[in-house]
Amino acid sequence: MFFSDGTYSKLYYFFYIGAITPLLIWVLLKLFPEKGWIKSINIPIILGGPSALVAAGSVTYWSWIFVGIVSNLIVYRKYKHWWGSYNYLLSYGLDLGVAFQALLTSMTVQMSGVYGVNWWGDVGDHCPLAQCHTAPGASVEGCPVL
Fold first, then answer.
1. Mean pLDDT over residues 64-73, rounded?
2. Pfam families given for it (predicted)?
3. Statement to judge: residues 34 and 13 lie in one domain
4. Which of 38, 39, 41, 143 could pair with 132 in a Cys bridge, judged by C-beta atoms 3.0 to 4.6 Å apart?
């Protein structure tokens, strides 16, 4: 999986990127010492941040952008005291609301006797032989012996 012919073979390049980028930031800091914002660049956070993102649809990302703009630009500019006191609490509440709703939905659906959605593409390829063992000599009822 991770070798040169594997699906994730390019993943090893990120070790090099992770080792080189702090050196580039250090060089930039030496070349431009008057630029204070260079000290604020944190490569582990920049490279590790996307790993915290869930595999979500585009609607989710747009809602994150909308809430971020409203909270960090509009509310911060007009109501700094409120933002300083309650912005992280708002973030916690939004995260907790999603988790609570997922738990509530799961519990109410399972109490009704529904333990998952039976979509067309969920059950293999609808070939009964796809569930058979392929080991030589394995004998299972309804499957051919190889």
1. 89
2. OPT (PF03169)
3. yes
4. 143
Provide the number of structural domains found in the chain. 2
In a domain, 68, yes or no: yes
Say whether both 65 and 103 belong to one domain: yes
DSSP secondary structure code for residue 5 in this structure = T
- How far are the Cα atoms of 117, 119, 131, 142, 146 from residue 124, in angstroms, in the given order? 14, 11, 9, 17, 21
> Rounded CA gap, 84 and 134, in Å?
62
Q: Which domain holds residue 41?
A: 1-52
Residue 95 forms part of a structural domain: yes
pTM above 0.85, yes or no: no
80-115 pLDDT, tens digit each = 999 999 999 998 998 899 889 989 988 888 888 776
- The pLDDT-based confidence of 32 (bands split at 50, 70, 90) is very high
CA-CA distance, 68 to 5, in Å (whole number)?
40
Asked if 125 contacts 118 with a C-beta cutoff of 8 angstroms, the reply is no
pLDDT at 49: 74
Would you list the DSSP string of 99-142?
Answer: HHHHHHHHHHHHHTT--S---TTSSTTS-GGGGS--STT---TT
82-85 CB contacts, 8 Å cutoff, 24+ apart: none
